[in-house]
Records
---
Amino acid sequence: MPFRPLIALLLLVLSTVAGADEVAEVQRLLRNGDTTGALQRAERAVAANPRDTRLRFLQGVILLDQQHDVPAMAVFQRLSEEFPELPEPFNNMALLHARAGRLEAARLALETALRNDPGLLTARQNLGDIHLRLALQAWEAVAAVAPADNALQRKLRLSRELVGPTR
């Protein structure tokens, strides 16, 4: 299912020049395909400057992309607690919830992201994906009881095609 994490952090608190240099270096490593080096650099930078929200968010995104879901969730959870007005950590927590099959938790996180920033198109699109997956679950439950319903079978086929393979 195409679920989109947010990488840009335009709304986060400005970091120091040193922090900006670290962000640029981590991003350079990522562009060069060195995700392990990027994560190590991000972790060292966060340890040295734990208040730098951009570095912390970038660390979480790298962990998310590497499918290290538990530590990624911890990063985004801490950011959401310290900066509850920011939508991006909630959007990425939703991705992690969805990846784990916790669709209601994903929906709630996305609704929080959209309350914080109603114009956040990535979160809006992700919420649509979650609604589709929730509908698919409901239709599958009905199909288990009434498998001969042709209209329902058509909905199931089309929605499965849209959702794609799930984990």
---
Amino acid sequence: MKRIKTINPLRRKFVGSLACGALAMSFTRIARASAESERIEVWKSPTCGCCKDWITHLEANSFSVSSFDEGNSEARKRIGMPVRFGSCHTAEVQGYAIEGHVPAREIYRLLEEKPDAVGLSVPSMPRGSPGMDGPAYGGVKDPYDVLLIDSNGMASVFQSYR
């Protein structure tokens, strides 16, 4: 006759508690590490509604935003973003320039991939991009590209939105 081994229910709870505790500690470490990478500074016009809406988009996607109501051109120049890729606001995150209405998911991708680049740009102000997608635009979505700007000032398509 084969003997069946029984499992002590208290032991099962104890092992489960250890596993949950380790998992919780891992999530805490990840959250702490990503909180460091999610700080972003934005320079914008004090009266620009779409800039404020873009900041709301960033905050809704877990960025911690510090915004300044002046200094857009100076920030763009200091970070090294060529003026031809300029837009209504300039941001900086982990040394990268973020110019215009760049979606948060592309900023996270940039931070994950860490290319040798100045940063990302969405030149002009395409309708349907984050911050340009409110009720005032009637649901219109223009196709646009998120550009990766290299250290020589050359652009390549990082992501297309069609």
